[in-house]
Sequence to fold (362 residues):
Amino acid sequence: MIHPFFEREARAHVEGAFTAHELGLASRNVALPLEALRYDLTPAGLHYTLSHFDILALDQASFRLRVGGRVAKAVELSMAQLRELPSKTLSVTMECAGNGRAGMSPRYPSMPWIEGAVGTAQWTGVALKHVLQLAGVGAQAKEIAFLGADRGFDSGVEHEFGRSLTVQEALRDEVLLAWEMNGQPLLPQHGAPLRLVVPGWYGMASVKWLSRIEVLERAFDGFQQVVGYHYRKRRGEPGVPITHMKVRALMVPPGIPDWYTRRRLIERGASEVMGRAWTGNGAAVRRVEFAVDGAWRETELERPAGRFAWQRWRCAWDALPGEHELACRATDERGDTQPMAPDWNTTGMGNNAVQSVQVTVR
Ligand SMILES: Nc1nc2c(c(=O)[nH]1)N[C@H]1C(S)=C(S)[C@@H](COP(=O)(O)O)O[C@H]1N2
Ligand SMILES: [Mo]
Fold:
């Protein structure tokens, strides 16, 4: 066997039983428990988290953000200097691009998310554009790369977690360098002391433990940019880069659960089902439908707390005794909606298939 650090062969897909490696990742990287969809703002301890390598313990006092590359003047900023810049707070729904991976078969061996890799937090920080203005982005600049301080291997390649945005995307007002989440200092697992937050995009764009910004005259060629995060039907094909979140709705599974199987039991009669819906790319969710045993009906959809935050929906349901399958489906302003079955791709990305919940009504 080739040593895993130098293993460049793609990991073989798996079917059926979950592997010990998947269990290991699933217990490090936690999902939002779906009942926590009740909160407009996800308490930090219930927000999902995904870290590829180790969760770092960076020292706030000696921390410096370095901005270099094709800039007029390279700068280094301490946390104290960053806090002196004009700050703002945005409510942002963030979802991992791998959310729903466990529902694709055969399965890519990685973090086996079921459906809870999502959360909404208030992020406070400085708009990235202010920091870029301090350094002065050169006219030839094409992309801006964001490098985390965390380092490790994937598919035989050693790298620091890094992602890039085009200059145009990076200068958008809503792209933040954040040091607070829900009014509290960032927790270590969410990237303390500083992270990027790119509203509307899947989570991988929001680089944690952000330590270096490089202005480039070429496209960034980091592993997480060129190898990772593409929709590919076949291995080795160039594929389509993953950017914004797809439209999606989730419901709080109603009733009470069985501890082990999570099957739900509900009392008969009038009840209300609720959940959240979101989409990326600046659009809003236009409608959410709810289905009992395949019969779809409209729900009541609330306005979002901000342009980048999920929207609450609810629906009255007169629960009749028996076994039922509940489902929900969102459609956004662009007319994009959710498929009934996952759209399979090699690394199990962007699965926004309709959620379905089995319930027993007593
Ligand atoms: N430095 C660094 N940034 C990172 C990651 C990482 O592993 N390292 N994971 C990314 C991915 S894949 C996601 S989904 C989000 C998760 O952010 P959260 O843990 O705060 O929810 O962080 C992104 N930023
Ligand atoms: Mo992710």
Observations:
- The longest helix spans residues 20-28.
